[in-house]
């Protein structure tokens, strides 16, 4: 090969690597993000140390739905993973370990296994939206979130309602540990 062919081939490799890096940065910025879970607030659904893929694009096209698992900016230094419980315009209450939205009882089947292991008391203490946030209904542009491990979760009961602008995206995939690989629905 001539030096001209060598330099052309080198230039082709540099361009390919550059394009791949730009694509990777764009995907990370606008489409998907990976997260490592720290803490036990989402147990047993999500465990400490799990690695997740978060879809950042979905909520640019639509809004979260009830029971979605989301990642949001809790403060300047931390992102939290929680489950969306209440939507704009709704009244939330818990009584005797049951969720009530606008006075109607709503099932939370993802908590069934966890509730079996509670030896005394309730998984979720009684409260109303107004008691914990001072709001009668969830305002437009906000959601009420909770961790599945209700006894050990810092969530909307403590930090207030989450502004939808602070939502990073929806958890779509657990990829680590590999034996727990799962598409999250």
TrEMBL record:
Protein name, entry field: Signal peptidase I
Keyword Protease: yes
Membrane topology: Single-pass type II membrane protein
Gene coding for it: lepB
Reactions accelerated catalytically: Cleavage of hydrophobic, N-terminal signal or leader sequences from secreted and periplasmic proteins
Swiss-Prot/TrEMBL keywords: Cell membrane, Hydrolase, Membrane, Protease, Transmembrane, Transmembrane helix
Alphabetized NCBIfam families for the sequence: sigpep_I_bact (TIGR02227)
Cell compartment(s), UniProt: Cell membrane; Membrane
Gene3D superfamilies reported in the protein's UniProt record: Umud Fragment, subunit A
Residues forming the catalytic site: 41, 82
One cellular-component annotation, GO: plasma membrane
Pfam families documented for this protein: Peptidase_S26
């Amino acid at each position: 090969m001539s030096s001209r062919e060598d330099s052309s081939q080198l230039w082709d490799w540099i361009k390919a690597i550059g394009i791949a890096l730009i694509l990777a940065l764009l995907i990370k910025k606008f489409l998907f993000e990976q997260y490592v879970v720290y803490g036990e607030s989402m147990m047993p659904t999500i465990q400490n140390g799990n690695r997740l893929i978060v879809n950042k694009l979905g909520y640019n096209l639509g809004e979260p739905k009830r029971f979605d698992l989301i990642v949001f900016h809790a403060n300047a230094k931390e992102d939290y993973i929680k489950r969306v419980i209440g939507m704009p315009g709704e009244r939330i209450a818990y009584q005797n370990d049951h969720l009530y939205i606008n006075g109607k009882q709503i099932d939370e089947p993802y908590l069934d296994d966890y509730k079996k292991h509670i030896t005394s008391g309730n998984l979720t203490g009684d409260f109303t939206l107004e008691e914990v946030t001072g709001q009668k209904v969830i305002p437009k542009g906000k959601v009420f979130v909770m961790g599945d491990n209700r006894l050990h979760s810092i969530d909307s009961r403590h930090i207030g309602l989450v502004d939808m602008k602070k939502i990073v995206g929806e958890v779509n995939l657990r990829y680590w540990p590999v034996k727990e690989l799962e598409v999250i629905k």
